[in-house]
Write a structure and sequence with these properties.
two-stranded antiparallel ribbon, 96 residues
Length: 96
């Protein structure tokens, strides 16, 4: 298991673009360690023979015809920005 320390919290804060005050770092370390402990317990459980389910309520989806009900407004919406390329919005890179 990976060690969760001050450097881990600072890296996660940087990647998520969050400011975590110095006085809160110890509390955040404790929270992440607790989450990792819960995940470890879940991973230890034997799931052999457990049937995979997509819904715990045994519900059934009502299917509808796959037809287009909206018109394409992409060109109109993208007129408000110059940061598009080939129909896609251009955004700054956040994760290195």
């Amino acid at each position: 298991m990976m060690k969760i320390d001050k450097n881990t919290i600072e890296r996660l804060a940087f990647l998520s673009q969050m400011a975590i005050p110095e006085e809160n770092i110890d509390a955040e370390i404790k929270r992440l360690v607790q989450m990792a402990d819960v995940i470890a317990v879940i991973r230890e459980q034997n799931t052999d023979g457990t049937e995979i389910m997509c819904n715990p309520h045994d519900a059934h989806m009502i299917l509808r015809d796959d037809v287009v009900t909206e018109t394409n407004h992409r060109e109109e919406y993208q007129k408000t920005t110059e940061f598009t390329d080939n129909g896609l919005y251009l955004v700054p890179q956040v994760i290195e």
